[in-house]
Structures are given as structure tokens and as C-alpha cells.
Design a protein that fits this description.
Helix content is 55%, strand content 3%.
């Protein structure tokens, strides 16, 4: 009957959720976000396994969002999960002309824009203390210190291999496959970062000799740690700090540099931002530095005969 409908009315063949999502994962397993996709698939599978893509419509998508919200899941996370389903459908349509309907289109929830979260020096101190004293694991303490010291992204730290690290020259090198924008580069290491890496090297030599990873998995030999979300959330709570994700370490690195009057162009280079407009998000954190530049105008005016003193004398 289905073959008849497909041939006579040109309707797309029924494709199961399992077929679409598994084919997509197999063909995109080289993606940098593949591990995150696997996490999203687990949640989608609980709701849509065994059903055809054609049978998923607006009510089913709405029900999914409602169920995940009741589970206490963030809007951004729900959006990533549904985006994966949408991406799988679009990919298979483009690659194999399946002409499947996309029930997710226009229905991905958009999170409210949140204020950029960074840690004060007091919060950072409490966070480091909590990471050393808690039950989150030794790697969390080193992860926190390395993030604050270098501004590296979470994925960059967890996937960092020793062949990229040059302790003698205090530098980490990145190939195009290692960075978010696919551009090779390097970052300098301060003394705090070097100390962390020396600690990680000693840990590797004791517990995982020969491992290529700076953060080797304590559970799966030969693999890196895939996520620090649970451990990081634990030490944030233990430190008595309002909710913050691991990415707040990177925001903190940039914020502290700007507050120390480091020029935005240099902050851009240290953070490896592709566009300085991204760095400009931190400019408001150093209004005093910007105001200090205005003394240049005072100097110009004073040499032009329009000093502040003369203007004050003339004022009523």
C-alpha cells in the first residue's frame, strides 16, 4: 500500500525516527560536536523511538518541550536536542532526496538572553577552594585553574593532548581541528597555567602512563574526560556561588584582563576571538580605563588656550 501511495501520489516514503537519526549520526561522526549529539539523541530516543518522521507534528514537538521542561531542563538544552532532530532530517533530505517533512522547523525554543556570567576574585577563590576540598575529583580543581589562567574553551581543555603542550616554552599549540573556528594558532601560558600542566603531567605519569590526554578519563582507559558539567556544578554549589556553567571560566579570564586595562585588541588575541566585536562585549567592565583616555583631550584643549581653569572662571 505504501509503495502504491509513493508511486501514485508522489508521497515520501515513511522513514522511522530510528532510521533517520542513526543514519545521520553515522555519517557525521567526525563532527566536533558528535559527543554532544549522542547525549541529545538519548533524550530524543526516549520520546520518538519507533515512530515515523511523518507522524511527528506540532503536538508531538510541543509535548516534547513540555516534558523536558518539567524535567527541569534548560531551554537552551531543549533547543539543542530539537535542533539535532531538525539537522538530521535536513541532512537526509539533502543527501538522499527523502523529501521528509520537518516538524521542528520554526519550533525550536529560543532561550532568553542572559547576562554574561563571570566570577569575581572572591568567587574564584571560593571556587578553587571548593574544587580542592570537594568530592568532584582532582581533575576539577586543575580544570578550574587552567580555565581561569588561559581562557581556553571547555572542549579545548578536555580534548587537549600532550603533543600540543610545550611546557618549556610555556605555550599550547592548536591545529585547525582543535579550535572552534578551525584556525590554527597558539596561546601563551602564565605561571599558574604551567603549574597546572606540571601537576597534570605528574598525575598522568602516576595513573595513566602514556596517555595522550591532559585530562584522561579515570573510567575509560585511552579516552579523555568527556564532560565536567556535574563536577563543576557540584563545586559551584559548594562554593556558595549562583549557577554558572564551565564557560564562565573563559568569560572570567577575558573580564579580568579588561578590568586590568589590557587593550581590547590584545584581549581579542589572547581569547582567540575571530571578530573583535565579540571582545567588545567586555568593554563595559573597564569604564575607568576608557575615561582615563579622555585626559588626552584635556591636554589638547589646554595647549589651545581653553583650559578647564579658564572655563571655570568664566562660568556664572
Amino acid at each position: 500500500m505504501e509503495i502504491h501511495r509513493v508511486s501514485k501520489w508522489n508521497e515520501p516514503a515513511a522513514r522511522g525516527f530510528d532510521e533517520v537519526i542513526l543514519a545521520y549520526l553515522k555519517e557525521t561522526e567526525s563532527k566536533k560536536s558528535h559527543s554532544r549529539d549522542l547525549t541529545s539523541v538519548k533524550r530524543l530516543y526516549e520520546h520518538f523511538r519507533g515512530v515515523s518522521i511523518q507522524s511527528i507534528g506540532a503536538p508531538e514537538i510541543t509535548a516534547y518541550k513540555s516534558a523536558r521542561t518539567q524535567d527541569g531542563v534548560a531551554v537552551a538544552t531543549i533547543g539543542k536536542e530539537l535542533w539535532l532532530l531538525s539537522a538530521a532530517i535536513r541532512y537526509m533530505n539533502a543527501a538522499y532526496d527523502w523529501n521528509l517533512p520537518n516538524p521542528v522547523s520554526g519550533r525550536v525554543p529560543q532561550p532568553k538572553k542572559m547576562e554574561m556570567r563571570w566570577f569575581t576574585r572572591e568567587e574564584a577563590a571560593a571556587l578553587m577552594l571548593a574544587s580542592r576540598e570537594g568530592r568532584a575529583g582532582d581533575h576539577i580543581a586543575d580544570f578550574v585553574r587552567l580555565g581561569l589562567s588561559t581562557g581556553m574553551r571547555t572542549g579545548e581543555m578536555l580534548k587537549l593532548q600532550w603533543r600540543r603542550v610545550d611546557i618549556a616554552r610555556a605555550m599550547v599549540r592548536f591545529d585547525s581541528d582543535d579550535q572552534k573556528k578551525g584556525v590554527p594558532g597558539s596561546i601563551p601560558l602564565n605561571q599558574s597555567a604551567v603549574a597546572v600542566l606540571v601537576s597534570r603531567l605528574a598525575y598522568r605519569n602516576r595513573h595513566h602512563p602514556g596517555s595522550p590526554w591532559v585530562f584522561p578519563s579515570p573510567k575509560v582507559e585511552g579516552k579523555p574526560i568527556l564532560s565536567v558539567k556535574i563536577g563543576f556544578r557540584y563545586v559551584v554549589r559548594r562554593a556558595g556561588i549562583p549557577y554558572a556553567s564551565p564557560h564562565a571560566l573563559r568569560h572570567t579570564f577575558a573580564s579580568w584582563l579588561v578590568q586590568a586595562s589590557v587593550p581590547l585588541r590584545e584581549v581579542c588575541e589572547l581569547c582567540r576571538h575571530e571578530d573583535i566585536r565579540t571582545t567588545m562585549r567586555y568593554a563595559h567592565l573597564a569604564p575607568h580605563a576608557t575615561a582615563a583616555r579622555l585626559t588626552v583631550i584635556d591636554d589638547v584643549l589646554s595647549h589651545s588656550g581653553y583650559s578647564y581653569e579658564k572655563i571655570s572662571e568664566a562660568a556664572p
